[in-house]
């Protein structure tokens, strides 16, 4: 039986509206990974005199953060794709080399834990079409999270159309010179599978992870509207209902995706999902950057969630999601790094600070995000989107002891006025360097700069060594194909946005 007291100058338990619940000079008693009591430290120390004490009056204790939308470890930038508008960046990704999934996942897991993330929504891009390889890869990714000690909600992106641009593969191939078209056809044959194989793989994964303890969930991920036929969307909804899992779907990340929905359906992407019956509290939409007012009402009325990926939207010139409107409408919004943090890493404290500041529009009466709301996005709402809401997202009796100890001295020394609230101080001044200890289920997984379950330096050395080999012929071929395809992909989107009159939800500047 494990038992410990986690002590802090401040314990930030959860967000309540625009504020947070804080216990000063508090402690959390955890037994076998569950919180059994929260209260005054002196009283709990009296009650449990022989127990191990973690933390001190120099610390602030808060729930572990949730990265609500994540893909890979090494960033696309590290893999050779400089930032570009999303549609072009997707084309560049074809050139990426193969990276060992176990080492790659650990690489980003290290960064996540170092910034206080204890749970992640991992949205995997399957490659090839061999289900044995899919399963091995998924298991390696899950093992990496288990080995480091994180909770993970795993899903893989289901795509059954429009793999290269926002039109049918056969139509786009017709636009290409025959030799490139042939290469693309061969690539698609080796990289895409029929819908039923994806659904069967989901069932296999779901069944295989029923006895993996309480740190693993499986979800379904319709990749995006343009990547899914209605048949694929409806099949995933049906399987989600049957297996009682959540859905996570990219949507309206760029204005091109907004335009795509209008061309395909004559409605917005959100209206189409509503028409198909997909909008509900079990669905999270990643991005939602280009939603109109009606979309936002539909999302709010159906209890659908949104995951805000601020850094990613900036890096891929996707725009700025109308977070202020989402929050006004009462939508539950999670927060994520989407493998593309503003510092090209997985720093949740940085992302919280970005989300806090990005939407501070001019005007003294404007409602802009409060630190407590951003904290709620990174904790309680992340817990909901990952399906762990009954276990994590707040520090409460009965919930898991998933928590972070931050060095309060690093935030408040040499001076911080009492006028500043604790949550404002944490969101404005918290740094990865001030994360002292990270605990998941009562187990310390990171302490004073060291991972307790995995040798970080050995993993990084192995990852580096694994990439010190020449590109394989297959990797070289993909790299060349990506380069040759690029101008045709760029050409495809050339006139897409010309007819649009953009009327922003809120203003940042003015021409007149
Ligand atoms: Zn994504």
Summary of the model, kept short:
The protein is α/β, with parallel strands linked by helices.
Describe the protein's architecture and organization.
This protein is of the alpha/beta class. It folds into 2 domains: about 5-60 and about 400-450, Urease, subunit C, domain 1 (Roll); about 65-395 and about 455-460, TIM Barrel (Alpha-Beta Barrel). The chain is about 40% helix and about 20% strand. The protein contains 20 helices and 18 strands. It has helices at about 40-45, 85-90, 100-115, 130-150, 170-175, 180-190, 195-210, 230-245, 255-265, 270-275, 295-300, 310-315, 325-330, 350-360, 370-380, 380-385, 410, 420-430, 455-465, 475-490; strands at about 5-15, 20-30, 35-40, 50-55, 60-65, 65-70, 115-125, 150-160, 215-220, 220, 245-250, 285, 305-310, 335, 405, 435-440, 445, 450. Strands 1, 2, 3, 4, 5, 15, 16, 17 and 18 form a 9-stranded mixed sheet that branches. Helix 11 links the parallel strand 12 (about 285) and strand 13 (about 305-310). The radius of gyration is 23 Å and the shape is globular. The model has no long low-confidence stretch (mean pLDDT about 95). The structure holds zinc ion. Zinc ion binds near residues 69, 250, 286 and 338.
CATH topology-level name of the largest domain = TIM Barrel
CATH superfamily heading of the largest domain: Metal-dependent hydrolases
Whole-Å distance between the termini? 68 Å
Outline: globular
Largest sheet: 9 strands, mixed
Question: Would you identify the CATH architecture of the largest domain?
Answer: Alpha-Beta Barrel
What structural category arises from helix and sheet content?
alpha/beta
Which kinds of small molecule does this entry bind, naming each only once?
zinc ion
The total domain count is: 2
CATH class of the largest domain: Alpha Beta
């Amino acid at each position: 039986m494990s038992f410990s007291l986690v002590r802090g100058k401040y314990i930030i338990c959860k967000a309540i509206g625009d504020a947070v619940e804080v216990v000063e000079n508090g402690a959390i008693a955890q037994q076998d990974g569950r919180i059994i009591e929260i209260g005054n430290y002196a009283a709990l120390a009296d009650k449990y005199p022989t127990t191990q004490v973690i933390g001190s009056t120099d610390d602030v204790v808060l729930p572990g953060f949730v990265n609500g939308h994540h893909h890979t470890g090494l960033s696309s930038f590290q893999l050779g794709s400089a930032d570009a508008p999303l549609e072009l960046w997707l084309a560049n990704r074809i050139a990426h080399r193969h990276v060992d999934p176990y080492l790659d996942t650990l690489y980003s897991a290290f960064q996540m834990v170092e910034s206080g993330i204890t749970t992640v929504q991992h949205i995997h891009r399957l490659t090839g079409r061999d289900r044995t390889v899919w399963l091995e890869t998924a298991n390696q990714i899950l093992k990496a999270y288990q080995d480091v000690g994180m909770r993970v909600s795993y899903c893989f992106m289901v795509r059954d159309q429009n793999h290269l641009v926002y039109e049918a593969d056969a139509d786009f191939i017709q636009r290409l010179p025959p030799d490139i078209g042939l290469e693309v056809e061969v690539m698609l044959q080796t990289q895409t599978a029929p819908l039923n194989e994806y659904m069967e793989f989901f069932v296999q994964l779901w069944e295989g992870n029923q006895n993996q303890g309480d740190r693993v969930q499986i979800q379904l991920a319709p990749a995006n509207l343009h990547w899914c036929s209605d048949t694929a969307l409806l099949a995933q909804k049906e399987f989600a209902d049957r297996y009682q899992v959540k859905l996570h779907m990219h949507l309206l990340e760029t204005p091109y995706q907004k335009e795509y929905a209008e061309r395909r359906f004559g409605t917005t992407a959100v209206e189409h999902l509503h028409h198909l019956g997909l909008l509900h509290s079990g669905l999270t939409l990643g991005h939602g950057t280009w939603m109109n007012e009606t979309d936002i009402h539909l999302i709010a009325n159906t209890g659908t969630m949104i995951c805000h990926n601020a850094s990613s939207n900036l890096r891929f010139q996707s725009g700025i999601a109308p977070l202020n409107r989402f929050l006004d409408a009462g939508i539950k919004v999670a927060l994520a790094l989407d493998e593309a943090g503003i510092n090209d890493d997985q720093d949740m404290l940085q992302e919280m600070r970005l989300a806090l500041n990005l939407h501070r529009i001019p005007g003294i009466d404007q409602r802009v995000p409060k630190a407590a709301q951003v904290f709620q996005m990174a904790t309680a709402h992340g817990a909901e989107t990952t399906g762990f809401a009954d276990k994590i997202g707040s520090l409460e009796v009965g919930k898991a002891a998933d928590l972070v100890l931050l060095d309060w001295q690093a935030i408040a020394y040499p001076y911080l006025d009492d006028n500043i609230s604790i949550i404002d101080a944490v969101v404005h001044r918290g740094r990865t360097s001030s994360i002292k200890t990270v605990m998941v289920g009562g187990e310390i997984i990171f302490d004073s700069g060291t991972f307790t379950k995995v040798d970080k330096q050995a993993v990084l050395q192995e990852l580096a060594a694994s990439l010190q080999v020449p590109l394989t012929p297959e990797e070289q071929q993909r790299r060349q194909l990506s380069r040759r395809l690029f101008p045709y992909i760029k050409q495809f989107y050339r006139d897409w946005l010309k007819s649009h009159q953009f009327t922003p939800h809120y203003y940042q500047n003015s021409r007149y």
